[in-house]
């Protein structure tokens, strides 16, 4: 059997079935450490080969295209992506203490991702300690720093359809992330009025694409149904290869628009990580306070969702009391 075919077979058996290195070694009469080395080298080769094809480079054209898709599919204007974090279960590394032990009571590394309206990863950041919160992981990631420092080349604010209100292009996220002009999160509290309840429902509807992408990734690759029993660096490589394969398959399995494959073939990969340090917040992002402009933008969007031009009646009927 040619070596390339054997390598592919080892990797597919490992990722798709969740089989251990030992069981694969027994099947092919190969030492388990040899199988592990081959899996790691193949994942690294896959990432190096596919990332230039499957991950876009930040540009105004890219974000405008993603925003149009969100508006069309999920009725959320000026949204360019959904942001969230997934804990990938790993075996506790030696001498790691509690660094990788998360609030869900297992050891993990974090996969922080931005997903577009078609359930494809735009940006991923892999390897943050499991014990850190989603917000802390965001602040220390290259993507988080680029976003907060206005380095993502997002388009200039656009008018909300049918109004004269300007809305900055933004990402939708849950309560773990900070409210910012470029990050929309739900309203806090339980005793909310109808306007805020509708906004939270609309944001949740748009944000579910990232949850669906994580779910597809976990079900397609059964390896994520159990702890990754490899070193942390190897675990990061496996996660990155799985995300690249996810994009590669979705761009070619008939789910995407016809022009998507051509677009993906000409895009370049973004830098991933790793770096540490705190984000340089804007002047009005003082600790414990939310930026006034971001609050106004969220309120304007909430009012739009209650207006004639922005209302989804079935959501209003479901949420309003």
From TrEMBL:
Where is this protein localized, as stated in its record? Nucleus
**One Pfam family it belongs to:** DDE_Tnp_4
Q: Which cofactor does it need?
A: a divalent metal cation
Keywords annotated in UniProt: Hydrolase, Metal-binding, Nuclease, Nucleus
The protein's GO terms of the molecular function aspect are: hydrolase activity; metal ion binding; nuclease activity
Give a Gene Ontology cellular component term annotated to this protein.
nucleus
> Where's it mainly located?
nucleus
Positions of the DDE Tnp4 domain: 84-247
Question: What does the similarity note say?
Answer: Belongs to the HARBI1 family.
Instruction: Name it.
Output: DDE Tnp4 domain-containing protein
């Amino acid at each position: 059997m040619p070596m390339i075919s054997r390598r592919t077979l080892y990797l597919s058996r490992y990722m798709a079935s969740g089989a251990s290195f030992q069981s694969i070694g027994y099947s092919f009469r190969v030492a388990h450490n040899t199988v592990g080395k081959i899996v790691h080298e193949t994942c690294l080769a896959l990432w190096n080969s596919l990332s230039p094809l499957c991950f876009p480079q930040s540009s105004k054209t890219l974000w405008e295209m993603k925003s149009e898709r969100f508006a069309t599919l999920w009725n959320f204007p000026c949204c360019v992506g959904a942001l969230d974090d997934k804990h990938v279960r790993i075996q506790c590394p030696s001498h790691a203490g509690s660094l990788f032990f998360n609030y869900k009571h297992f050891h993990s590394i974090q996969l922080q991702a931005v997903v577009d309206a078609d359930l494809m990863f735009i940006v991923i950041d892999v390897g943050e300690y499991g014990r850190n919160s989603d917000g802390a992981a965001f602040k220390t990631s290259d993507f988080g720093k680029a976003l907060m420092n206005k380095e993502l080349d997002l388009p200039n604010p656009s008018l909300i359809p049918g109004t004269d209100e300007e809305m900055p292009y933004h990402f939708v996220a849950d309560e773990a992330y900070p409210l910012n002009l470029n990050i929309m999160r739900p309203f806090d509290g339980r005793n909310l009025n109808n306007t805020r309840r509708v906004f939270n429902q609309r944001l949740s509807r748009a944000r579910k694409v990232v949850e669906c992408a994580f779910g597809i990734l976990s079900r397609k690759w059964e390896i994520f149904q159990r702890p990754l029993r490899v070193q942390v660096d190897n675990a990061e490589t496996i996660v990155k290869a799985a995300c690249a394969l996810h994009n590669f398959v979705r761009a070619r399995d008939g789910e995407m628009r016809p022009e998507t494959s051509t677009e993906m073939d000409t895009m370049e990969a973004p830098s991933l990580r790793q770096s540490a340090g705190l984000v340089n917040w804007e002047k009005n992002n003082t600790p414990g306070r939310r930026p006034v402009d971001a609050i106004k933008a969220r309120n304007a969007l909430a009012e739009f969702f209650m207006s004639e031009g922005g209302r989804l009646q079935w959501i209003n009927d479901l949420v309003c009391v």
